[in-house]
Amino acid sequence: MNDRFLAPALAFDRVCHRYGEHAALDDVSFSCAPGEFIALLGASGSGKTTLLRGAAGLLAFDQGAVRSPGSGDRRTIAMVFQSHVLIDRLSALENVLAGRLGYNPRWRGWLRRFNREDRLLAIDCLDRVGLLSHAARRVDTMSGGERQRIALARALAQQPAVLLADEPVASLDPEAGATVLRLLRDCCRERQAAVVCSLHQPSLALEHADRVVALRSGCVVLDAPSSALDAAALAAVYR
Ligand SMILES: Nc1ncnc2c1ncn2[C@@H]1O[C@H](COP(=O)(O)OP(=O)(O)OP(=O)(O)O)[C@@H](O)[C@H]1O
Ligand SMILES: [Mg+2]
After folding, report:
1. For residue 123, what is the domain's CATH number?
2. DSSP of 131-164, one letter per residue?
3. In a domain? residue 96
4. Using a 6 Å cutoff on CB, does residue 54 contact ligand 1?
5. What pLDDT is stored for residue 1 in this prediction?
6. What would the mean pLDDT of 39-50 be, rounded to a whole number?
7. pLDDT class for 33, splitting at 50, 70, 90?
8. Could you tell me which of 162, 161, 157, 183 has the C-alpha nearest to residue 99?
9. Whole-angstrom distance, CA of residue 96 vs CA of residue 155
């Protein structure tokens, strides 16, 4: 389902952000419906990470607003970072379980005391990213691409209403990258999550996303369904 008339799961309303004199975001407005997968494109420095960090509440925009019906509840928005942020000394499974922290009462917050459902969910998420056989391995012994997939498994375990991913396929080989994008798409379909995912490969956006939003110098220069776009239309974004 991809009903644009549903109340948005995430909406940017005239967002502006500056770093000193530099305008990183300049009057950005668009929204993402439940079950919709938006690919965020744009050249390096166009503002993608700034926008996603603001949506995740990690940065306060100078002007404008970002709205999400469940905002305030840290479980509802999950983010997979450009630099995968994991807890090095913990195993893959423990890192994924960290995605469940928001659902556990405080007394159960210690990683080793998760309930059975949380453990099964974490195992399922690790399996989905193809790393179940590495469940017990410390993540600081893993490759960049493996860590990236663990970070995605952790976000999936959070069962968020909004999933933000900043270049989640940048450090992956083409096959693993396609798997990750299919997982994000499944997350949209199965859980009606809204997904906003920045990408550097326009072809992947066309293949996997419902809609493409492109930034240039902090402004939205394209907002259209993928079905209405082709490679030439996307190449224009980078000129
Ligand atoms: N902490 C910061 N201080 C100053 N300028 C910053 C900071 N973070 C980002 N910028 C600048 O803001 C602009 C947007 O940066 P941002 O990281 O959002 O771009 P991006 O589209 O994610 O780029 P990339 O594709 O390289 O990841 C860039 O010009 C960048 O140099
Ligand atoms: Mg970035």
Report:
1. 3.40.50.300
2. -GGGTTSBGGGS-HHHHHHHHHHHHHHT--SEEE
3. yes
4. no
5. 46
6. 97
7. very high
8. 157
9. 8
3 lies in a domain?
no
Q: Name the average pLDDT for the chain.
A: 89
Q: Which domain holds residue 83?
A: 10-238
150 within ligand 1 shell (Cβ under 6 A): no
Count of the separate structural domains present in the chain: 1
pTM: 0.91
Residue 46 to residue 224: CA distance in whole angstroms: 18
| Distance from Cα 107 to the centre of ligand 2, integer Å | 37
Per-residue pLDDT, averaged over 40-52, amounts to: 97
pLDDT digits (tens, 9 = 90+) for 73-91: 556 899 988 777 898 888 9
Are 160 and 76 a contacting pair, CB within 8 Å? yes
Strand partners for 163: 78, 195
Locate the ligand 1 atom nearest the alpha carbon of residue 215 and give its number.
Answer: 21
5 within a domain of the structure (yes/no): no
Residues 15 and 218 sit within 8 Å (Cβ to Cβ): no
